[in-house]
Amino acid sequence: MINPLRKQKIEIDESPVFKPSAEEAGKTWAIEARGITKSFKAGHVKVDVLKGIDLLIEPGEIVLVMGPSGSGKSTLLAAVSGLMKPDGGRVVALDKDIWKMPRSRIDRFRLANCGFIFQGFNLFPALTASQQVQVVLKFMKKKKSERKAAAEAALRDVNLGHRFNNRPDRLSGGEKQRVAIARALAKKPRLIFADEPTSALDGENGHVVMELLRKCAKEQGATVMCVTHDARLAVFADRIITIEDGRITSTNADPAQFANSH
Amino acid sequence: MSLALSTLLFEWRRYLAAVIALALAGVLMLALSAMFIGILQSFTATIDKSRAQVIILPAGASSLGGPGGGGGALPKRVVPLIYRHPEVVEVQDLPGDFGRFYGPGQTSPSMVNIMVIDTSPNGVTLPDDFTDEMRRAIEPPYNVGVDASAVNQLGVKLGDEATINGRTVRIALIMEGYANSQAPGVVMSRQTQRLMGTANDDMFGLLMVRIKNTSAKDAKRVAEELNAMADGQYKAWTKEPLAAATVKDAMSEGLLAIILGFMSVIGFVIGVVITWQTLRGAILANIKEFASLRALGVSIGQLRGVVMELSFWVGVLGIAASAVLMVGITFLAKSANIPMGFELGSSLQTGLLLLLISIMSGALTLGALKKGEPADLLK
Fold first, then answer.
1. What is the mean pLDDT of chain A?
2. What confidence tier does A260 reach under pLDDT thresholds 50, 70, 90?
């Protein structure tokens, strides 16, 4: 099957039409996405996955993007986080128009500012929890002592102070995801992107992981965009955005509506 | 510890095929040349073990010229020319020959490599591993020594009588360290050689020179000074450069060079293919982890660095494994009396080649990283 998230040949709409509302004008945004479109070809059929999405996230906000499978929420996350170029529209993250930058500068932007948490934990089997966290800091050219201290602090923040020297095969699913969170947070990112972070975990572990993610993000003042279809996570969000069929259906949905859905 | 090294050590089973491929490629290249050098050294054992510091060859000879060869001949009049140097103490020729050996236990004669040495105490051509007892054993006329490895082949034991070129000789010494896989080694005194009628006192293959001070530095200097006096009539060598030149000359000889070259190419290609595929498989097994690093902003260039470092360490392990295998093979060869010789140059060359194989495999593996698109992790 063709993965719709793979890089495709794209055409950029250089002049997105946008008129800010009175309420939006003058505000600063951590993430400002306007008129995002993305389509994929599946055989001879062109599928529009994102159909002109506007997304505004305030600094320090924890935003949950919810929607059914295939609604385009992961594609949206990829587009606003600098992982996949949209066909049209503009993404300004931390005052940088990211898709106008060359790829190497986008990499540097992500290295300096972005943390990612994925559904799979993606931890190197050979590395201990502490090394998993340090490896990214090493690529950021941090000193060894600095790396070690930051890694241990990040692991303590996710309650893994006793697991510094354990490799992934000695960790439970919840612990692995907490290591992945520590890895994402240790570099003190201003933006955190999470894609279905709890879907590989049971309810209890999922709850613990989200609680820790929320606590750490708030402590660091980071902005979180979390994509999920798990309604139970609604309670952790400052704001819930719903998406359906490539269009945003609500920018401030009522969490109660989701609380009742399970 | 770096990501590459940690991964290699922890997931060593995954990389084992590459390490073994490299080790075998190394053995393929090294064992053949070691066996050849061994054969070569078995022919020049008496030169290597002699008490001479300087060796005189004909002016045109670029080396000892491989098995049985001397690169021309030196006329007798060269001997006094060497004595002109004030530091020269003794000049002797080192005759060598082949002969038909017929032992009591043999149904047909064998060709033997005859090594002729001085049996005077501390004689210039007396091998330095010869004890006084060994020297005395072959001192009487027609007494000869046979290498322990050749005893069965020649069908003799200590005290037996045999014939060389039809003359009766007595096996008075069984020695070790003179194994020769091409022609069994027999050692005899200069006097015995004269009695056998094979001595040539007018033309010499080479001359062995003892000098006053035996240090390598002095030997080098005297050789240089002798060469300055040579006037195109001879060329003086010290032992090490002569041994190296002999190996080099022999290695570049037609058929052998082709065989060695062919083996190296085969070893190289097999090494690259197996190492590349193993590395590729190992990288693809961790591709999601690499993709997550990409998402976190680690550049593709930095990840390439990790792959190249990984391939470097695989190469280092391959060299180590190759060395271990070679030690095993050397012991096996020793127990089977197959002489093997190692030369630093060709060993280093093989090591570098293995490293090149692993680095090239790493370079070929870089393409696999493209499969690690971070967007693929969003599902």
1. 85
2. low
- Show contacts of B100-104: CB within 8 Å, 24+ apart: B100/B163, B100/B164, B100/B165, B100/B166, B101/B154, B101/B162, B101/B163, B101/B164, B101/B184, B101/B186, B102/B162, B102/B163, B102/B164, B103/B154, B103/B155, B103/B156, B103/B160, B103/B162, B104/B155, B104/B156, B104/B160, B104/B161, B104/B162
- Domain shared by B165 and B205, yes or no: yes
- Do B170 and B309 have their domain in common? no
Q: Are residues B190 and B73 in the same domain?
A: yes
ipTM value: 0.85
Domains in chain B, number? 2
Within this chain, do residues B56 and B186 fall inside the same structural domain, yes or no? yes
Q: Which of A101-110, B40-49, B54-63 has the lowest mean pLDDT?
A: B40-49
Q: Are residues B68 and B215 in the same domain?
A: yes
The chain A residue lying nearest B373, using CA atoms, is A6
Q: Tell me if B245 is assigned to some domain.
A: no
pLDDT of residue A17: 44
State both tokens at A68.
């059914």
Domain range for residue B116? 50-237
For residue A257, is pLDDT > 80?
no
Of the pLDDT bands very low, low, confident and very high (cuts 50, 70, 90), residue A10 is: very low
* Residues B60 and B31 reside in one and the same domain: no
Do B6 and A124 lie within an 8 Å CB cutoff? yes
Does B242 reside within a domain? no
Sketch out chain A's domains with CATH numbers: 59-83+102-259 (3.40.50.300)
Q: Write the pLDDT tens digit of every residue in A109-120.
A: 999 999 999 988
CA-closest candidate to residue B80, choices B221, B205, B233, B216: B233
Give the pLDDT confidence of A28-48 residue by residue, as tens digits: 889 999 999 999 888 888 899
Distance (Å) from the alpha carbon of B312 to chain A's nearest alpha carbon: 18
B288 at A interface, C-beta within 8 A? yes
Our CA-based measurement puts residue A158 at a distance from the nearest CA of chain B, in whole angstroms, of 19
A184–B296 C-beta distance less than 8 A: yes
Report the gap between the CA of A231 and the closest CA in chain B (Å).
17
Interchain pair B373, A7: CB under 8 A: yes
